[in-house]
Design goal:
It is built from 13 helices and no strands. The protein starts with 10 loop residues before the first helix and ends with a helix. The longest helix is centred in the C-terminal third of the chain and has 31 residues. It has 300 residues and is mainly alpha-helical. The protein has one domain: Orthogonal Bundle (Farnesyl Diphosphate Synthase), CATH 1.10.600. The radius of gyration is 20 Å and the shape is globular.
Length: 300
């Protein structure tokens, strides 16, 4: 409230707070889970649609709102144009939006059954724990990035497979792939930390670039992205048609030059690796999902 007049956030600022550009990874991971389940996609279109909406515009958007509220002091240094530090979302509206979106996510998840609701609850707890005290997992780059990777990739994948299978826990092969790509996502999350080194250092956020230094953090991010994918290739050779393993291997090969360029100047090239290399990695996720589907003998 200013001069006795209630202030409301600008609609465009609310959309920016929810960061639609970040919704794609969990939506994609849920779709991978649905594909890998071996269930007919055409017979479960509503489940697929509902799950994708839940993973992106609901749960992921909530995590972005929560993060922006509890990071408003850091953003005032690193990204003062963000909706909260710029004043386009005034007062405590950033917190109110995070709470409202949390409630809406739980309501939306209710229609997906017990597993969908429980997985959503866990993802939301991770989202709040990542940013909010007293846990604030993001204070440590190892723990925070692991929480994000598990929530955005692994948990979304497992949820997609479970919801499509009527609430049954996916088999060991699907769980293994989901966890491997969660680990790879840890490296993806590290790429985001290179744009905020100054603010993180000033605010005591121990991101990997702050902990390890720019060069060592860059190398760690690359290896954490590469090694799980190589394990996936080896597993697909054993579990499915070798052509799927070859496709993932070629996608890895295409990432290497981008990582080499990134290593030469991590701060300047982190965005380039995110924009070009990460899509290659997540394309491998879908190839792996189809490998599991092929192994189950389902095509529709």
């Amino acid at each position: 409230m200013k001069n006795g007049v209630m202030q409301f956030p600008q609609p465009a600022a609310v959309l920016q707070l929810l960061k639609p550009v970040t919704w794609f990874p969990p939506m994609w991971a849920f779709a991978c889970g649905a594909v890998s389940s071996g269930q007919s996609l055409t017979e479960h279109l509503w489940l697929v649609f509902s799950g994708i909406v839940l993973a992106g515009p609901m749960v992921c958007a909530t995590s972005q709102a929560v993060n922006d509220w509890f990071d408003r002091h850091v953003d005032a240094i690193n990204e003062p144009q963000r909706p909260i530090p710029s004043g386009r979302i005034p007062g405590r509206w950033g917190l109110y939006i995070a709470i409202i979106w949390t409630a809406l996510s739980l309501l939306w998840a209710w229609q997906l059954g017990a597993w969908g609701f429980k997985a959503t609850l866990l993802a939301l707890l991770l989202a709040w724990g990542y940013s909010a005290p007293p846990f604030r997992f993001k204070q440590d780059g190892w723990l925070g990035n692991a929480a994000c990777g598990l929530s955005y990739e692994g948990l979304a994948w497992i949820t997609g497979a479970a919801v499509m299978s009527g609430g049954e826990l996916p088999g060991a092969h699907i769980l293994t792939l989901a966890l491997l790509y969660s680990l790879a996502a840890h490296g993806i999350m590290t790429l985001n930390d290179f744009k905020a080194i100054e603010g993180d250092r000033l605010m005591g956020v121990w991101s990997l670039p702050v902990q390890l230094g720019v060069k060592r953090a860059a190398g760690t991010a690359c290896w954490v992205m590469l090694l799980p994918q190589l394990v996936v290739v080896a597993l697909l050779v054993r579990w499915s048609d070798w052509s799927y393993a070859l496709a993932v291997l070629l996608l890895i090969y295409a990432q290497v030059p981008l990582m080499t360029r990134f290593m030469k100047d991590p701060v300047k090239q982190a965005l380039g690796l995110s924009a070009l290399g990460v899509p290659l990695l997540v394309a491998g996720m879908m190839v792996s999902a189809f490998a599991m589907r092929h192994a189950s003998g389902v095509t529709s």
